Amino acid sequence: MPLTLWLSLAAVCAMGAMSPGPSLAMVLRHTLGGGRTPGVVAGLSHALGVGLYALLTVWGLGAVVSQEPVLFRIITWGGAAYLAWLGIKALQAGRGGALEAQAAVTDPLQAARDGVLVALGNPKLILFFVALLSQFVSPDMSIAGKALIVATAALIDGLWYVLVAVALSHSAVLPWLQARAHWINRLTGVLLLALALRVLIG
């Protein structure tokens, strides 16, 4: 793949990763609730889900999924239900008051599960990859070229959310966030419920 084409691919993947949504809310929640390690694990596991969708796209299965109304509806409803569940959990945590600095209300295993499920339960990723990532795939592309596309999508997503988790868990940032966790959890919960509703209606 030419360098200029790869740079365009990297820019597209970066824009997709940096756009606000349930993934950012999920990484924030785990960083706030457990510190740097759960936040980083959530970001890396989310990247695995992104890598899977990228792999499906280069194999041509992403287009099949997007054109099958029943399969797409199942993914949509499942993703919306999971986002709503995360939102309710965040609202319940918000009523519990601010988090203490040592309070580990989440752990790496929970973070890994949520990271993958938020990625796989987001039907927008299918449309994103089919509409944009598939433009970089040609019928005669080599296996190495396809592998480069998958690796680029997963690595950029993972690096972005690891950076977010590390920045949020910095000693000067995390205490400030934890002192306001009551309101951050409420805001995150409302955002996740709104996103779940948006997925269902649109």
TrEMBL record:
| Leader peptide range in chain numbering | 1-25
Transmembrane segments annotated in the record for this chain: 41-63, 70-88, 116-136, 148-177, 183-201
Claim: Transmembrane is one of the keywords in the record: yes
Q: What is its main location?
A: membrane
Q: Where in the cell is it found?
A: Cell membrane
What keywords sit in the KW lines? Cell membrane, Membrane, Signal, Transmembrane, Transmembrane helix
Q: How does it sit in the membrane?
A: Multi-pass membrane protein
Which is a Pfam family this sequence falls into?
Answer: LysE
For the keyword Membrane, the answer is yes
Q: What is this protein called?
A: LysE family translocator
Q: From which source organism is this entry?
A: Modicisalibacter tunisiensis
| Lineage of the organism | Bacteria, Pseudomonadati, Pseudomonadota, Gammaproteobacteria, Oceanospirillales
